[in-house]
Amino acid sequence: MRVEIKIDPNIGEPTIVIHAPKITPEVMMWVDMFEGIEDKSSLLIARSHDKLFVLEPEQIEIVRTEGGDIKLYNREAQEYMLTKPLHEIHGRLGSGFVRISKSAIVNVSRVDHLSNSFNGTMYIVMKNGVSDYISRKYLGDFKKRFGL
Fold first, then answer.
1. Is position 116 within any domain?
2. pLDDT of 114
């Protein structure tokens, strides 16, 4: 790897640019490292089609574990991949998000509708059409959040 520093007095804020032929675990490691340098509050960096995107919480509908991967779905139901564990993502997203199962977090302002399901669970459908189950373990907190 090569490191290059350019000094420009006209730049107001230091910027880090990574040039790489493709996204690799090493590139993601550097992104994660530089992400922690400055508090970016609740912004998330997610990957889709070998590109990195900066997403704000308002754009996010649901984050969940699927087959060992952490996937995020935005308002248009576009799928993104995340590298951080679900509990860390939940901590960064703040109070507008609630855990609905061991493997999923939803944006409470983007819930479309709920329906009863089997075994005491509930089925949740987001405004983008993505759906999941609210497990019994998290159902009490979810209902309390919505005043049910």
1. yes
2. 92
6/102 Cα distance (integer angstroms) = 45
Q: What is the pLDDT of residues 56-65, one digit of tens each?
A: 888 999 999 9
Structural domain contains residue 4: no
Task: Check which CATH number belongs to the domain holding 76 and give it.
Answer: 2.40.50.1020
Classify residue 7: in a domain, yes or no. Answer: no
Q: How many domains does the chain fold into?
A: 1
What tokens were used for 20? 């790489």
Q: Contacts by 88-94 with C-beta closer than 8 Å and gap 24+?
A: 89/44, 89/63, 90/63, 92/41, 92/42, 92/44, 93/42, 93/44, 93/57, 93/60, 93/63, 94/42, 94/57
How many Å apart are CA 34 and CA 16, to the nearest integer? Answer: 8
pLDDT digits (tens, 9 = 90+) for 122-142: 999 999 999 999 998 999 888
Question: Is there a domain that residue 118 lies in?
Answer: yes
